[in-house]
Amino acid sequence: MAIKDIPLEESYIPGSAACPGCPATIALRIVYKALGKNMIKVVPACCTAVIESLHPNTSFNVPTMNIAFEAAAAGASGVEAGLRMQGITDTTVVAWAGDGGTYDIGIQALSGALERNTNFIYICYNNEIYSNTGIQRSGATPYGAWTTTTVSGKTEFRKEMGEIIQAHHIPYAAQACIAYPEDLFNKLRKAKSIHGPKYIEIMAPCPPGWRFPMEKTVEMGTMAVETGAWALYEYENDKVTFNGKSKLILENKIERKPIEDWIKYQGRFRHLFKPKKDEKRIKAIEDHIDQKWNRYRRCYL
To answer: Domain range holding 207?
Structure first.
């Protein structure tokens, strides 16, 4: 799929209340193009509950149900069951949640829906913080990052949510990034074609939360992949396949860029460089990513 072949029709329409440079809006446009209008979207408390704006100016041209923070997967399970009882099988049910509502507050409902083999697509747009409620740390926030609740830098490494999902042995899961729209589009189309629970997580760099200029959103996504901080892969029937530059990094065909090349442009890591460079914590981040990729190579090569 070349980007020129992605459908032109838009279901993300004028009326958005998103921040300038918002990565979730980039992802939403691709989701709507890949899945089409015959879908029902369930959205918990998150940035998207604001992005959609208020009636009559909503920016979503698909049926959307807003639900409590912890209940995205439970709500989507109910929608899917209701459609199934009516004999409706061609409507795609999508749970769309941030990392706070996935890694932390919503993980119980998500795990239950996967265990029940719910026929839906769960999409997590991961901006690595609770951005909508004031930029607090989440389970997805990386080590060393500033948030309003980790003012000197987070002291824990983020969860590997993708590996937690794989432990449920669902038919399909994937990691994508807003900087690679064709890859995201293809993964969404594949997920739509598969029956049962599907999980897609999208790296979504947040300008106000990460403290970088709004015009750098796509660049921050690209650098996340090129430094190995984020991997592009698919999990299908207990097999993991890496995609794009992540595949080349995995196979040692290209070297991943130093993590410093990515974090030095993000204000959330400014304290690691000023008033003097914190070599110890920067090295800890680099070592953690090395360990992750060594684990990938042991498991998947």
So the answer is: 3-300
